[in-house]
């Protein structure tokens, strides 16, 4: 990563550097702090941390993740010695809420007042849910990020103060406005600092196609998300500091980034709802809805993390039931029983696996994946079938652009390799 984040942001915006080469998820460590305006700091990290200096200490928007908390704080301290007055969580995802501890220790040792953590009222509910589903969250994140052994946290730094719709703060003479939004989560806050015409938007903008479709996570809110982006744009911000990715500087660029993202979400919602309102099956919706090509070309809307196809599922779930319109899936047989029937009809699981290879070689990876999976379900102890399944899903992982699809396909390949005894568990 370039030493100067703002210079890199400029080159990314102009298309001189491919966003894929500095993929937000693969940012390895905390990089150097940037100062997009006097009194405003931005620490690129996973997730990014933004800071505003006031007459009475710092306001942080987001605090980063546990492994990077100390190095993020060290970067902040290179920039300012002021105490932490207030930390705002843009939402309760774990990469944003595990950085308060080092400032609390510092406050105790310096005899400073303890920092106050503020978030939307949905954040404590989220932390409660995370405790309830810690096992599930461990499994899905191991899969998504290819992190074997990753363990979901069960202890959280809850906010000291929550709010519902809006909250106006005066911190050392600097006015800070918090606005609730439904978007990537139900507990999002975008923070507006009029003095700097600065918005810290959390994950409502992440320098990538919106994380609105995430296949393994709870409900997201694409239409409300778009509305929030339009609300932010009304403020005419000059500095946009996002939860992931890079700063966007200049009123025109900020407006473009916000409104293009809104337009993408609105288009997917409109197309999906039109088909739902006509009674289409999910299958038809998935294979008909198309994200606007010109928007997908924008460097800040590339599907490197999430995938617009997944957003169609989110919209289906938001406005419909779980039934996909195919009556055989309403009260289905065991998948393994269906696979065994088809394998029998075809002349064995090997026939299905061989067809999977042929389809893969012909370039139809979607269909190849179905046959490889059926073969493995029909013959779970057949190592040659697992070899095919591993090959097909490895290839699928390689051909996908999003972290999420790559992670899930790679995990399927890894499962089959493990079944074959090729990898340690
Ligand atoms: Zn995030």
Percent helix:
40-55%
N-to-C series of helices and strands: HEEEEHEHEHHEEEEEHEEHHHHHHHHH
Strand order of the largest sheet: 1-2-3-4-5-6-7
Low-confidence stretches: none
Distance between the termini: 33 Å
The number of helical runs is 15
User: What's the number of domains?
Assistant: 2
Gyration radius (Cα, Å) is: 23 Å
Which CATH architecture of the largest domain? 4-Layer Sandwich
Report the β-strand fraction as a percent range.
5-15%
Average pLDDT metric: 95
The SS-based structural class is alpha/beta
Can you list the ligands bound to this structure?
Answer: zinc ion
Shape: elongated
Indicate the CATH class of the largest domain.
Answer: Alpha Beta
**DSSP strand count:** 13
Query: In the CATH scheme, what's the topology name of the largest domain?
Result: Metallo-beta-lactamase, Chain A
Kindly report the name of the CATH homologous superfamily of the largest domain: Metallo-beta-lactamase domain
Major sheet attributes: 7 strands, mixed
């Amino acid at each position: 990563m370039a030493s100067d984040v703002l210079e890199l942001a400029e080159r990314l915006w102009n298309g001189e550097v491919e966003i894929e080469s500095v993929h937000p998820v693969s940012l390895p460590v905390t990089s150097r702090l940037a100062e997009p305006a006097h009194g405003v700091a931005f620490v690129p990290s996973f997730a990014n941390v933004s800071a505003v200096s006031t007459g009475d200490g710092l306001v942080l928007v987001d605090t980063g993740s546990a492994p990077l908390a100390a190095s993020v704080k060290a970067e902040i301290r290179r920039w300012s010695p002021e105490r932490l007055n207030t930390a705002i969580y843009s939402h309760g995802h774990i990469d944003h809420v595990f950085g308060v501890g080092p400032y609390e220790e510092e406050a105790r040792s310096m005899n400073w007042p303890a920092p106050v953590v503020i978030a939307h009222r949905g954040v404590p509910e989220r932390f409660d849910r995370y405790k309830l589903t810690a096992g599930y969250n461990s499994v899905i994140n191991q899969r998504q990020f290819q992190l074997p052994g990753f363990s979901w946290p069960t202890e959280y730094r809850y906010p000291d103060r929550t709010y519902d719709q809006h909250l106006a703060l005066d911190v050392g003479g600097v006015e800070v406005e918090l606005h609730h939004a439904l978007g990537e989560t139900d507990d999002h806050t975008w923070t507006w600092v009029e003095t700097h015409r600065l918005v810290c938007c959390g994950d409502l903008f992440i320098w990538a196609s919106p994380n609105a479709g995430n296949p393994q996570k709870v409900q997201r809110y694409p239409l409300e998300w778009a509305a929030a982006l339009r609300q932010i744009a009304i403020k005419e911000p000059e500095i946009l500091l996002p939860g992931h990715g890079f700063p966007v500087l200049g009123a025109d660029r900020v407006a473009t980034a916000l409104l293009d993202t809104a337009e993408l979400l609105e288009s997917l919602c409109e197309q999906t709802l039109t088909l739902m309102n006509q009674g289409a099956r999910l299958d038809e919706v998935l294979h008909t809805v198309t994200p606007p090509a010109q928007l997908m070309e924008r460097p800040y809307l590339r599907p490197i993390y999430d995938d617009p196809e997944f957003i169609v599922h989110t919209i289906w779930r938001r406005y419909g039931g779980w039934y996909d319109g195919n009556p055989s899936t309403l009260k289905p047989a065991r998948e393994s029983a269906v696979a065994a029937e088809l394998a029998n009809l075809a002349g064995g699981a090997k026939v299905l696996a061989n067809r999977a290879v042929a389809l893969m070689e012909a370039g139809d990876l979607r269909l190849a994946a179905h046959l490889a999976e059926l073969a493995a379900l029909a013959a779970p102890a057949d190592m040659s079938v697992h070899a095919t399944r591993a090959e097909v899903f490895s290839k699928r992982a390689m051909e996908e652009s999003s972290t999420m699809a790559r992670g899930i396909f790679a995990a399927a390949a890894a499962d089959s390799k493990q079944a074959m005894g090729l990898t340690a568990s």
